[in-house]
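Demo today. Your pick:
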Amino acid sequence: MRDFKEKITALLKNLYPLFIPFVSCIFLCFSALGILRHAMWRDEMQAWLLARDSRSIPDLLFNMRYEGHPPLWHFLLYVITRFTCQPAFMQLLHFVIAVLSAWVFMRFSPFSKLQKVLFIFGYFPLYEYMVISRSYAMGVLFVFIFCALFPGRTRKYTILFGLLFLLSQSNFIGAILAITFGCFLLLEFTAKREEISVSVKEKDIAMGACLFVCMIILLIFQTHLPPDTYYSWAPRYLGGINFERIVQTISNINRVYMPSFHELKKEFFVISAGDRLFSALELLFVVLLFLRKPKVLFLYVVGVLGLLAFFYLQDGVRLRHHGYLYILLIACLWLGYYFQPVDLKSKFFNRLSITANVYRNLFIIAILLSQFYAGIIVSAEALNEQFSAGKETAQFIKNKHMDKMIMLGDMGEHIAPIAGYLCNTIYYPKISRFGSYFLWNRAGFERKINQAVIFRDAEKLMLQNRQNVLLILTYELKPDEMTRRLEFIRKFTNSLKREEIYYLYILPYNKDCLTIREPYISEK
């Protein structure tokens, strides 16, 4: 029996070098299936269209003025769009970034093999920051590279601050973490200055500090939105303290740490008493966990407060934004391995912290198992469900050779995926011109259009271009709203995003038609 155990142990040691490549390959294959099946929606395609239809970098920055995000993701897309207009290449770039994040975590994180596997196949790494092509996966990559390089920080302060600069340019949520990690680095250097000053060149730390200051100044300019923006940074909750809003914001912690599969498909969650209780207990446990590692505790507390403050002040925050609370927790647990615990003056809190660390692995496994379950189930269901009908609609238009027709879309922000997949522009009645991406300004969103405007513009396009016009609507016309000249083509209603279902109609060219006289338009 002893010989058998020794042989098994020796076999496992020989197989260990294959562990990371083997798990990474499984992750790569599973993720590739999700990416190939996923139909991109408005938020994903908006960044691609901004990059595709900008003539230069300054033009791109000008077109991004309403976005409220730093431009690094758009810069990468701009480079790609100089060679192709196919948005699948954006998904390829996002896929590479997400796979790199998983590999860095597998290769350099100090977690156990089981914990590593559960994490990369969890909901956020496998679905939210893999399948959906946004800038958030890039931020996760920079966080993980920072954690991997942190042990050699005495020789790499400039590199670490450079990574934080890139993190701040990935997205606004990443910028909050970048500022937090920067303060953590400066605190850690100041506290151990006498010990590490011999190996740290003054020039290195000075350059890092300059990068940090420049990062903050740049972010101030980048977050300045035009006066006519539709989404303002001036929140309605700033005028007074809304305790119900505070409780609701904090209660999202439990939904992020231990997501419920049945709730993940909902845009907004109903906060229950259980969420409030478990969120408070989880926060308390993590604080006790890091109590004897004050620098990591500083990083966690400041990071959580910064993220929660943003979530409290802003409406329209989604699960992909809340997910950075989870990434922050993982980063703090990772960095915690590099610090030795210190004894607290209070024996009571010292004992509490020691007790919490006894259950540390149990806590981590509970969270990772919840993430793993949600990640596998949601990713598997995504293979059978269509996220948006935009890709299917665009493919139908191509197959029927209608992609060269004049196209009109009733709701510009929801028609954008079709413009992206068709490598084309579409006429938007809301802005009275051809376009692809949509500007988040009041002029575009506050202007109300009805069917009279849509059909009047369609007929003008028909007469001006002397050809049929393809109407792409996000709703179905009623029989009394139809005319014998308007031909219904097909509807596309298989979509998780209910605002991105489409109905195709053709207005045939009629040179004798000068005005719309038939009473088929609803003026309401």
The CA atoms of residues 452 and 523 lie 6 Å apart. Strands lie at 406-409, 426-428, 433-435, 469-473, 487-492, 502-507.
